[in-house]
């Protein structure tokens, strides 16, 4: 058989000075390039070179830090390793640097340094033979017993590891397939050794000397593994596997050496993260992605910015509740009682929740409905969502969407961006820890739109029961099942919700409360809550229902109960002051043994003059409990009534009627006034009216003129022709507010009929609705 000539490296090599470790032939190492000389070497040779020889470098271990950029070339170690640059990765953050993946080929000796700038180049002499087909049998004969002894220790070390790990099994096969002269360098680079020990192996040019120096290192690692296995024998098999895979998972990472402890802890975290991925119940697709990312993470240096991003991504994937859920409480009777205790009225809404429970009891695989509560502020839409979660026994999470104008808030950022993070949906699932919570999408009608996208369009996939079982967040880039999530959206109006999004939700109207309902809510919920917040008890303060009615009618005008709740808070604060002052006076009286003034007691009722509650602060004795809040006390605490009952006063003459105007805040009443005077039959309209409302006024006067005889309507001269020598002025107060719409028709007709008939309109009736030329009042259809 003809001999094969050895492979030669170039006689001139550019020198790469490294301070992160010692590269041995046959091993692979990542090294960071950030010094001026090394940066120039990478740019000139690796990035611009085209031949294979341009990727061969001379790697010299350097004890001084090359980042110092000294003007003179530091002393060079005489022996280095010729290496092949396999991969180059560059970054400009936080400063320009490269990361090289290099593989050692053979040893060389520096004969002469040819130049030092911009990077060192030296004439070298190759020390190791590089043969494509080495003569293994000849090597074994030359080394004899020394080679067999080394091979025995190497096999013993590898077999102490977990052979089920692919890397360990591959290493075991390499022991038999690789030439024996390459094994000392490869095993030295894998086991834990100090840089000084690796440098000694690098300097060992003689193969026999290399075997003699490596055998004690193998024995030391074997003894270290035996000791660790003995001390950790009580741990579970998984923990043993954590110990076993360390040597082959990362270069220079076998227990029992002098490596940095922080690196050990970080590597332990990665191993535990890998264990969590294996034991998690995530879908197969997500599991494949995690396995791929964990393999990338192991090969990635911690200094790379992508290292933290990848680790954060894997931690999120592990923490997500892929298959973790809570069990619904399906007791219909208990759910009805709980809803009734938490909320008064809202029958339609509570009925829908009970229907969902009933169907869920019959079919466990029911998808979560997409509900949308539409109503004015303060009627309890958000608190109802929390009560629904409490009724079902589910976790609750609120997502405020008011002002959101970036679709990434819903679908997350792609991981290519710095500071990327998942969307609010995925982040909420991570927070609650289950995959079937109740998500409250608050203020869905106040979503914005900007150059960053339309979040309302991003919600289309989330709120579609036919699509959200396969929701893909841009950050995860893996499908997540949202079909078991119960989504509840809240809105004040549907006018600003896009039609496509509105079509995906089941609209449930939540109307404003009547006076009777507000009284019940106040005494069931609001007053007890305020008493608890202010440290008062029912034995110290009493608020009769008549007083509550006065607060509702004279101090608030709203569809909900938020202002009413604040009024009760103001009353409780005033009473708290009186109670605290009374306790102080009582203590003072006890100290001074004052006996007079026993008949002077404070009682906030008719005994107190309209002067105010503060007039009683000079009384000698503390107030008598409980303090009763009546109308005089209300005037003292809350001030004069904000909404006096002006309705009856304004309707004390003909030609005035009350209409109802819809607003997103729940609506309000609107007066319509009419007067007549001698003239030429003209109709004057004032109050910033729109075209539709003007047409309603002309329609109303036409209908009244055609039915004047039927309803005995006459003008000032007694004629049934209402506009005969008569001008009519129709006015809508609050002239600074623009008004329009057809629903004022019936109010205008009533106002004009009152004017021409001389009869007063009832002060306790308000009306709304469009009229036709035939006198029909059409039902009100408002896009709420």
TrEMBL record:
Keywords associated with the record: Acetylation, ATP-binding, Hydrolase, Nucleotide-binding, Peroxisome, Protease, Serine protease
Gene Ontology molecular functions: ATP binding; ATP hydrolysis activity; ATP-dependent peptidase activity; serine-type endopeptidase activity
Residues reported in the UniProt entry to bind ATP: 375-382
Lon N-terminal domain ranges (all copies): 13-222
Residue positions of the active site: 743
Domain of life of the native organism: Eukaryota
InterPro entries, sorted: AAA+_ATPase, ATPase_AAA_core, Lon_bac/euk-typ, Lon_lid, Lon_proteolytic, Lon_Prtase, Lon_prtase_N, Lon_prtase_N_sf
Repeat recorded as keyword: no
A Gene Ontology biological process term: protein import into peroxisome matrix
Any matching Pfam family: Lon_lid
E.C. number: 3.4.21.-
Subcellular location: Peroxisome matrix
The Lon proteolytic domain, residue ranges: 651-784
Residue ranges of the motif Microbody targeting signal: 782-784
Family that this chain belongs to: Belongs to the peptidase S16 family.
Function, in words: ATP-dependent serine protease that mediates the selective degradation of misfolded and unassembled polypeptides in the peroxisomal matrix. Necessary for type 2 peroxisome targeting signal (PTS2)-containing protein processing and facilitates peroxisome matrix protein import. May indirectly regulate peroxisomal fatty acid beta-oxidation through degradation of the self-processed forms of TYSND1.
HAMAP family membership: lonp2_euk
Subunit structure: Interacts with PEX5. Interacts with TYSND1. May interact with enzymes involved in beta-oxidation of fatty acids, including ACOX1/AOX.
Protein name: Lon protease homolog 2, peroxisomal
């Amino acid at each position: 058989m003809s001999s094969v000539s050895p492979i030669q490296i170039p006689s001139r090599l550019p020198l790469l000075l490294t301070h992160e470790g010692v590269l041995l032939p046959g091993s692979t190492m990542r090294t960071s390039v950030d010094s001026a000389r090394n940066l120039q070497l990478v740019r000139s040779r690796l990035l611009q070179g085209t031949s294979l020889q341009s990727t061969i470098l001379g790697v010299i271990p350097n004890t001084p830090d090359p980042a110092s950029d000294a003007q003179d070339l530091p002393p060079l170690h005489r022996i280095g390793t010729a290496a092949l640059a396999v991969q180059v990765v560059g970054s400009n953050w936080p400063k320009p640097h490269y990361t090289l993946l290099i593989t050692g080929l053979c040893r060389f000796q520096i004969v002469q340094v040819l130049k030092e700038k911009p990077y060192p180049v030296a004439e070298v002499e190759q020390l190791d033979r590089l043969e494509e087909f080495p003569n293994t049998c000849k090597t074994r004969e030359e080394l004899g017993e020394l080679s067999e002894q080394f091979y025995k220790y190497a096999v013993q070390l590898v077999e102490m590891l977990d052979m089920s790990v692919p890397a360990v099994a591959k290493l075991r096969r390499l022991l038999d397939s690789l030439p024996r002269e390459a094994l000392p360098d490869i095993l030295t680079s894998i086991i834990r050794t100090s840089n000084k020990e690796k440098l000694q192996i690098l300097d060992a040019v003689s193969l026999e000397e290399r075997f003699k120096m490596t055998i004690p290192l193998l024995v030391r690692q074997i003894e270290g593994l035996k000791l660790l296995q003995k001390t950790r024998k009580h741990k579970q098999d998984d923990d043993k596997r954590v110990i076993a895979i360390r040597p082959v998972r990362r270069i220079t990472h076998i227990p029992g050496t002098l490596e940095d402890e922080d690196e050990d802890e970080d590597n332990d975290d990665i191993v535990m993260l890998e264990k969590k991925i294996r034991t998690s119940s995530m879908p197969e697709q997500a599991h494949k992605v995690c396995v791929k990312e964990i393999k990338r993470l192991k090969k990635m240096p911690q200094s790379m910015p992508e290292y933290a991003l990848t680790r954060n991504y894997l931690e999120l994937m592990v923490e997500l509740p892929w298959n973790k859920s809570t069990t619904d409480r399906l007791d219909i009777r208990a759910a009805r009682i709980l809803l009734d205790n938490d909320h008064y009225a809202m029958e339609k809404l509570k009925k829908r929740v009970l229907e969902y429970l009933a169907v869920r009891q019959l079919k466990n695989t029911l998808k979560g409905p997409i509900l949308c509560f539409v109503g004015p502020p303060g009627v309890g839409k958000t608190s109802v969502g929390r009560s629904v979660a409490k009724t079902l026994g589910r976790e609750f999470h609120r997502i405020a969407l008011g002002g959101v104008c970036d679709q990434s808030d819903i679908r997350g950022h792609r991981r290519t961006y710095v500071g990327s993070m998942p969307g609010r949906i995925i982040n909420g699932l991570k927070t609650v820890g289950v995959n079937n919570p109740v998500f409250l999408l608050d203020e869905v009608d106040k979503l914005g739109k900007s150059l960053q996208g339309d979040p309302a369009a991003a919600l289309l996939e989330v709120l579609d029961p036919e699509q959200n079982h396969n929701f893909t967040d841009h950050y995860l880039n893996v499908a997540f099942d949202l079909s078991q999530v119960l989504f509840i959206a809240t809105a004040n109006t549907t006018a600003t919700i896009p039609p496509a999004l509105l079509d995906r939700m089941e609209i449930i109207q939540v109307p404003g409360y009547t006076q009777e309902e507000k009284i019940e809510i106040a005494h069931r919920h609001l007053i007890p809550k305020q008493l608890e917040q202010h440290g008062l008890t029912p034995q110290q303060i009493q608020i009769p229902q008549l007083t509550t009615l006065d607060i509702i009618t004279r101090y608030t005008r709203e569809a909900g109960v938020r202002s009413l709740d604040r009024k009760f808070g103001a009353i409780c604060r005033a009473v708290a002051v009186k109670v605290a002052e009374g306790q102080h006076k009582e203590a003072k009286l006890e100290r001074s043994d004052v006996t007079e003034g026993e008949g002077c007691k404070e009682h906030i009722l008719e005994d107190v003059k309209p002067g105010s509650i503060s007039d009683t602060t000079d009384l000698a004795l503390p107030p008598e409990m409980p303090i009763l809040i009546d109308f005089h006390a209300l005037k003292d605490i809350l001030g004069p009534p904000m909404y006096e009952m002006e309705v009856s006063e304004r309707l004390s003459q003909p030609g005035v009627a009350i209409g109802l105007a819809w607003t997103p805040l729940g609506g309000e009443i609107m007066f319509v006034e009419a007067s007549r005077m001698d003239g030429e039959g003209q109709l004057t309209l004032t109050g910033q009216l729109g075209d539709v409302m003007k047409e309603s006024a002309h329609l109303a006067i036409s209908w009244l003129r055609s039915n004047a005889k039927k309803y005995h309507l006459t003008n000032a001269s007694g004629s049934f022709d209402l506009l005969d020598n008569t001008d009519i002025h129709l006015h809508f107060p609050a002239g600074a507010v623009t008004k329009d719409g057809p629903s004022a028709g019936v109010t205008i007709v009533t106002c004009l009929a009152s004017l021409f008939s001389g009869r007063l309109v009832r002060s306790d009736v308000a009306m709304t609705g469009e009229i036709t030329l035939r006198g029909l009042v059409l039902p009100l259809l408002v896009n709420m």
